[in-house]
Amino acid sequence: MDVREKSRSTLFESSKHKRVPIYVMMPIDSFGIDTSGAPRIRKIKALTISLRALKLAGVHGIAVEVWWGIVERFFPHAYNWSLYEQLFKLVSEMGLKLQVALSFHSNAHLSSRVQGVSLPQWIVEIGRQNKDIYYRDQNGFPNGDYLTLGVDNIPLFSGRTALQCYEDFISSFANKFDSLMGTIIEEVCVGLGPSGELRYPAHPFQDGRWQFPGVGAFQCYDKYMMEDLRTVAWQEGKPDWANKGPPIAGDYNSFPTDVPFFEEGEGSFSSDYDIASTNLAY
């Protein structure tokens, strides 16, 4: 046996008795809103059979997205946890654990085949009156999948800021499922936006503006982000920065090699302006 084979054999011997817990993600179409507006689990019998099979296969737990747009759907502070109470009870009865992702975005545009989950209806209604609560690109197009960072600290949502909405939701979740924490619920995290790939909001998927492998586009043109930019510009003593987003940054389907922003020199990501502005834009 040569050195490489001996090393490989030792590695296998030392690791074969170690176990890594495996979580299986719930399918995107597991949840829905019925015609009465009530949240429901689709195909509950099939789901029960699948969970039992996963347990028999040695799966440790289930990864579940907990949607803001389902729980606080109709009115501020009106949290309906019934769907997740039913689901978590079923998962527990199957002897499985839970890994929970709190999702504050929409996946309604993710697939033409599946009815997704929108943002809460009362948020959508505010957005109809004020599209600047969403990220907006240099052409003025909003991205309705997620609230812009520009409204994090502005009380536009029935007297609350976006961060307060998220905090209240998380607190409600923690209070509702306190008895499951650390036993059935082993991990809680915050979702990474549409598709969960940190691609939002620069790569909107639903309307064809962006195609892989384009670099995407800055989403800093809603009025709140622009106000933040103006504040930073004046703080830096550069008022001429105040009314424009990152220059020469290309468009959705540009390649990095064609965009000066991604190179060295004037107007690049390393210039004084872009260091200040991109801290706000992404």
Layout: helices, strands, pairs:
Elements: H1 3-15, E1 23-25, E2 31-33, E3 39-41, H2 44-56, E4 61-67, H3 68-71, H4 82-93, E5 97-103, H5 121-129, E6 134-136, E7 142-147, H6 162-176, E8 185-190, H7 223-235, H8 272-281
Parallel strand pairs: 1-4, 4-5, 5-8
Antiparallel strand pairs: 2-3, 6-7
Organism: Artemisia annua
Pfam families: Glyco_hydro_14
Catalytic activity: Hydrolysis of (1->4)-alpha-D-glucosidic linkages in polysaccharides so as to remove successive maltose units from the non-reducing ends of the chains
Describe, in plain words, how this protein is organized in 3D.
- With 282 residues, the chain is α/β, with parallel strands linked by helices.
- The protein folds into two domains: 20-196, TIM Barrel; 223-281, no CATH class.
- Helices cover 32% and strands 13% of the residues.
- The strands form three sheets. It has a four-stranded parallel beta sheet with strand order 1-4-5-8. The chain has a two-stranded antiparallel sheet with strand order 2-3. The protein has a two-stranded antiparallel sheet with strand order 6-7.
- A hairpin with a 5-residue loop joins strand 2 and strand 3.
- Helix 7 (223-235) runs antiparallel to helix 8.
- The chain is globular.
- 27% of the residues are buried.
Superfamily (CATH H level) name of the largest domain: Glycosidases
CATH fold node name of the largest domain: TIM Barrel
**CATH classification class of the largest domain:** Alpha Beta
- Total number of helical segments? 8
Structural class: alpha/beta
Record the strand order, biggest sheet.
1-4-5-8
Separation of the first and last Cα atoms: 53 Å
Shape: globular
Helix content: 25-40%
Total domains: 2
The profile of the biggest β sheet is: 4 strands, parallel
What is Rg? Answer: 23 Å
Q: Kindly state the mean pLDDT as a whole number?
A: 84
How much of the polypeptide forms β-strand, as a percent range?
5-15%
Q: How many distinct beta strands?
A: 8
Q: Helices and strands, in N-to-C order?
A: HEEEHEHHEHEEHEHH
Detail the poorly predicted runs: none
> Mind telling me which CATH architecture of the largest domain this is?
Alpha-Beta Barrel
